[in-house]
Design brief:
single chain, about 725 residues, alpha+beta, 8-stranded mixed β-sheet, 6-stranded mixed β-sheet, 16 helices, 37 strands
């Protein structure tokens, strides 16, 4: 493997060469061919100067990107060899690059290039989809290919990668560094990306023909065809960009560059459906071979409305949102892009204590799906559950609608999400306006699911409330360490949202709504947070809560108390809830009697005092921060990554007075309506901000005492 040298290293070597030369008595003492001379070569030079990439170089020229590749930047280019390009052309019945249009070349070149980060071959390990998008704004799919090479020390096991299911990195030629990036030569064929829309891609996949037919019959196929809001032009809002003060630092905030529409589909294969009666965990005694069979299954999950006209198998009835088949299929669909590793976040979450979990509204109205990455390191997985079911993933498998709570005796298996689809469709999985996956069970929002999966504390990161954030890559990398918050870095960006950018949000004109990118040293769940602020006066903000089953709930807001915060009045469905919430830390501990929940000394008396303090806070409507959510020291020079988070290198939120949860509502929620929260500032002197980090929606079965008398856990 060739060593990657950055410009700074080259410069250092040059200086060292000069220094060594200066120490010699005579330059002529050194043979001319022994002198180090650095020849700068940009990505454009590499392509022009290497005959084996001449066809790709011509594609770059036709795409109009050669000048761009001549500039300084951080490019990772998966460059196809001439043989790979010829193989691709032959598959199209073409004999020359000249037969490709300029637009086709542009799409291919942008597919094969990442313009924001340099990834060496080693950096690719452990990813299903790369965390940084290519120049088309899509995540490249990786498939690891183990191989054995011969070295001077004997055989060595290494890995290369198939990218987007269509081109393989040539291991022996990988990691070729250039002045402005790195090149990974590709063999076999070029790296491609589908230009089809998601519903059309699914229809072309023979492995999911029953599911795809049901999508068409229910009309859901036609509801996933949007790509981009062409009326949105970020240049119209560039005056909003700038440095915004928060706490004791300034953050540069960007305006979102796009307003895309994207979708995610979780499809059950024909193979699974054809053997459905054989699975003990589904409780269904028939196999499913046709869409009519799937309709019959849906009727057992959604019996409500039987006998009504919309409940039938007719063409018009199947397109009704109340139809059982329509509800079943729509529940498998999201109106947001769910890249596998970004369906959840490990940032700040200690996996030895709890599983990372998110909750997403689905395209079945008034329903929510639970996404949980289940790890073997904690107690929230059932013995015998397959946590190595996904190839290449040794620990941590994504489940939909999974719950296992041994303390309360609750279990619902749910469905495993497989990051890969068939080899035949691998190139199309992440397509023009979405992505799809195979899952190994049907999922639903029926009564059994509601009684089990949603019989839990639902901790919802505000990031998941608005699909625009996932559809436009607002959340950045998941390993978020110490970024310079005042620089205009492309990593871990902060964003400010123009009025109207987020659907189902109402806000006053004089308020700014800001997203701060995830950093694992923030006092924030999953590292990121939202802030409402104004330099002009008071502000007003209303948004919808995700749907939950009808019932009695407690709604809590998780946030961090700091001196620069403001005071806000909360409303639920238009009704004020209690007195205004003061988010400043001033005198807070004295007023509430807050004490750290966990102590290093496990003395019984100290523990009893901590438990009493917890109860005292609950009586005042306060909860300690979660014990499973951790904060690393911002002063650490080697801050642990998300994967390295441990009890020994982080502090639990329950021991940080600033990280707190406040009950803002107790009462009925959910059912066939979307509840709304409104926040109206009553004090924002000097631009003081209100922070929104996460919402907890907690059923009474959890926040109240159960029959055994056990209280809600601290996690």
């Amino acid at each position: 493997m060739k060593k990657i040298l950055s410009f700074k290293i080259y410069a250092l070597l040059t200086l060292l060469t000069v220094a060594v030369a200066g120490l010699t008595s005579c330059k002529d003492d050194i043979p001319e061919d022994s002198l180090y001379t650095y020849q700068s070569e940009m990505l454009s030079d590499f392509l022009r100067n290497n005959e084996n990439f001449s066809l790709f170089a011509r594609m770059v020229e036709k795409a109009g990107k050669m000048d761009l590749f001549s500039t300084y930047g951080t490019y990772t280019c998966f460059a196809p060899t001439n043989d790979a390009v010829n193989s691709y052309l032959a598959g199209l019945g073409l004999s020359s690059v000249e037969e490709l249009s300029d637009n086709e070349c542009d799409t291919l070149v942008c597919t094969m290039t990442i313009a924001s980060k340099v990834f060496s071959l080693t950096d690719l390990e452990g990813y299903t989809f790369l965390e940084d998008n290519n120049m088309l704004g899509r995540a490249l799919k990786l498939q690891e290919v183990p191989m054995t090479i011969q070295t001077e020390y004997g055989e060595q096991e290494v890995s290369t990668f198939i990218v987007n299911g269509s081109g393989q990195v040539i291991y022996e030629l990988a990691n070729d560094s250039v002045e402005n990036g790195i090149v990974h030569p590709i063999g076999g064929s070029v790296v491609r990306a589908s230009s089809d829309l998601l519903p059309d891609v699914i229809r072309k996949d023979p492995a999911v023909s029953i599911f795809a037919e049901a999508m068409v019959l229910t009309g859901l196929h036609d509801q996933m065809v949007r790509r981009e809001d062409v009326s949105y032009n970020y240049h119209d809002y560039e005056d909003l960009e700038g440095e915004y003060h928060s706490d004791n630092h300034d953050n540069w905030c960007w305006v979102p560059r796009t307003r895309r529409y994207r979708y995610t589909a979780f499809c059950v294969t024909d193979e699974v459906l054809n053997h459905y009666s054989e699975y003990d965990d589904v409780g269904y005694n028939k196999n499913i071979y046709t869409w009519e069979d799937l309709y019959d299954y849906a009727c057992t999950v959604y019996p409500e409305g039987a006998g009504q006209s919309y409940y039938a198998k007719t063409e018009s009835a199947l397109k009704d949102e109340r139809n059982p088949l329509h509800k079943l299929i729509a529940y498998h669909l999201l109106d947001r892009l769910g890249i596998y590793e970004k369906l959840y976040s490990n940032c700040t979450i200690l996996r030895t204590l709890i599983n990372p979990t998110e909750w997403y509204p689905t395209m079945n109205p008034y329903s929510t799906m639970k996404v949980e990455c289940v790890y073997s390191a904690n107690k929230f997985h059932k013995d015998g559950e397959d946590l190595t079911a996904v190839d290449g993933i040794n620990d941590g498998v994504v489940y939909l609608n999974h719950i296992y709570d041994p303390d309360r005796g609750i279990y619902h298996r749910g469905a495993i999400v497989y990051p890969d689809v068939s080899e035949e469709m691998a190139n199309n999985q992440n397509c023009e306006n979405g992505i799809y996956y195979y899952i190994d069970r049907l999922i639903d929002y029926g009564q059994t699911t509601q009684n089990t999966v949603f019989n839990a504390r639902m901790r919802m990161d505000l990031y998941t409330f608005w699909p625009e954030l996932m559809n436009n890559d607002i959340r950045t990398t998941q390993t978020n360490l110490h970024d310079a918050t005042t620089s205009k870095t492309t990593n871990c960006k902060n964003y400010i949202f123009p009025t109207g950018y987020l659907d189902h949000v109402e806000s006053s004109d004089d308020g700014d709504f800001i997203y701060q990118g995830a950093r694992n040293y923030y006092w924030s769940y999953e590292g990121d947070e939202f802030n409402l602020r104004s330099d002009k006066g008071l502000y007003d903000f209303t948004f919808e809560l995700p749907p939950v089953p009808a019932g009695q709930y407690q709604v809590r807001l998780g946030f961090a108390l700091i001196p620069s915060r403001g005071i806000g009045q909360f409303y639920l469905d238009g009704k004020p809830q209690g007195i205004p919430l003061d988010m400043r830390i001033t005198g807070w501990e004295d007023k509430t009697g807050w004490k750290a929940l966990y102590t290093a000394n496990n003395n019984a008396t100290l523990r009893a005092n901590a438990e009493q303090n917890k109860k005292d806070l609950h009586n005042q409507g306060w909860y300690h921060g979660p014990a499973s959510i951790r904060c690393v020291a911002s002063s650490s020079s080697n801050a642990p990554t998300d994967n390295d988070l441990a009890l020994s290198n982080s502090t639990p939120f329950c021991n940080i007075a600033n990280t707190i949860r406040r009950v803002i509502y107790t009462g009925p929620l959910g059912g066939d309506k979307r509840n709304k929260i409104r926040i109206r500032s009553v004090w924002s002197e000097g631009g003081a901000e209100l922070m929104f980090d996460y919402i907890e929606i907690v059923p009474k079965s959890v926040y109240g005492l159960d029959t055994a008398g056990s209280a809600e856990d601290d996690l």
